[in-house]
Structure formats: structure tokens, C-alpha cells
Write a structure and sequence with these properties.
Layout (H helix, E strand, L loop, with lengths): L3 E2 L3 H17 E2 L4 E2 L2 H18 L2 E2 L6
Antiparallel strand pairs: 1-4, 2-3
Amino acid sequence: MKDKIGFNIVFAIIAFPIGLGLLREFDFHSFVFRNPALGFIYLTTFVFSLFMTFKKKKDETEK
């Protein structure tokens, strides 16, 4: 049976404000983060949240 892509609402709710913070931290005129350390933390947390939001569900019948 195919693995289905799941949607985890908890990580989606976490990803939304982190994505907004990431956009606020990014300077579009010079294409750099205003504070590079904080931008890196926002970016890694945002990518992890998106990964966990759309992680594939494992089929529990297969062993």
C-alpha cells in the first residue's frame, strides 16, 4: 500500500509564526539577514517544522 503524506496541524501552527519572523528578519534590499545568528535559527526551525508537517505516514500493517 502507498505511504500517504500526512498533515500535522501542530507543526503547521508552529511554522506559521516562525515563517513570519523569518520574513521580518530578512532584508530584501541587501538579501542578507539583519541578525545572521537569529536568521539561521529561524530558518532551521522553519525547515524542520515544514518537514514534520508534511512527513509521510508509515503504514502500520507492514512490518
